[in-house]
Amino acid sequence: MVDELIIYMAPKLMGTDGRGLVNLLGFEQMGQAVDLDITEVSQVGKDIKIVARIKN
Q1: Fewer beta carbons within 10 angstroms: which end of the chain, N or C?
Q2: What residue segments make up the domains of the chain, in order of their start?
Q3: What pLDDT, in 10s, does the model give residues 26-43?
């Protein structure tokens, strides 16, 4: 099980055929969503770095 996510986001938009950030099979409703605490947000060059931990 993952307890921390480090996500880098580029300032780009893609169409509907673009690849999604995360594909969690079986999670199709908001009630199934995993809650996160964002612990850090910073800029790395032109990208954004987000560090998040799973809420207990």
Answers
A1: N
A2: 1-11+32-55
A3: 777 888 888 899 999 999
